Amino acid sequence: ICWSAKGGWHRPRVQPYGPIPLDPAASVLHYAQEIFEGIKAYRHADGSIHTFRPDRNAARLQASARRLALPELPTEYFIQSLRELIAVDGRWVPTGADQSLYLRPFMFAKEAFLGVRAAQKVAYYVIASPAGAYFTGGVKPVRIWLSEEYARAGKGGTGKAKTGGNYASSLLAQSEASAKGCDQVVFLNEKRDVEELGGMNVVFVFKDGRVVTPESDSILEGITRDSLLQLAEDRGYTVEKRPISIDEWREGVASGDIVEVFACGTAAVVTPIGALVGDGFDEPQPLGELALSLREELTDIQYGRREDKHGWLLRLDA
Ligand code: PMP
Looking at this predicted complex, what is its ipTM? Predict the structure, then answer.
């Protein structure tokens, strides 16, 4: 779908996958005015195709658009774009356990000019790619590198938006994590509160039944996190969204108050954190039952194996 300041949203269509023509002066290439989403389509046992809480992805795309001075795509257009793609390409939604079709809606500024201002011409696309099970041979706890040198986002910046710049700024820290033998990096803010991983939110489980996740104006509000916290609340856990410092994390694990730490996001769903590694320390993290049991409950809902009591699924192929 295209957008222009004069004509609004127009020209919705499905076209064969291929390169996108872009003027070398297209402002996205210079000023990174772009946003995206990540959402999956799941095939149920009866063959039907469903997606999970697309209204949330649409709302987050709209919030990202506001922050990046892009036009807001109405929720109905967002959902229509997924439906039309599935109408043409539904055969690509796999049938295997834990497999899905990953959908990547994205929007960028395509107006050609070199001044720094919000573009008046924009394009919105959705591409898709079959995604196998994220973990082969079972879910494995990950080692997390504590990034002391690099921040992902700053106060008043774009950390809450799903925009490429946040990921660009996380790449060097991710390379550092890999060089240190870690799978992922965890970012702190200027107050040394825990923010998130490069592409996942973090959740802490306390011994007394509290489930705590960082509240911050510079992290992405994960839809997986929101759903898992709802399921935890349904089970009687007390959910807290509040700042949690790196000291509280390390001391909580040392004293036994924190009994489990996990990361979550659309791609991997839930990943237990098995070690926190930093300059001069390598601290094993306690592994508990909650992460994997919430993971099972959530994927059961997504794949239609369990009742969708919150009405989170939307059928795409009918
Ligand atoms: N934080 C970041 C930086 C991410 O890229 C993602 C993945 N979209 C998440 C958190 C988790 O969000 P969600 O559960 O909506 O996939």
Answer: 0.98
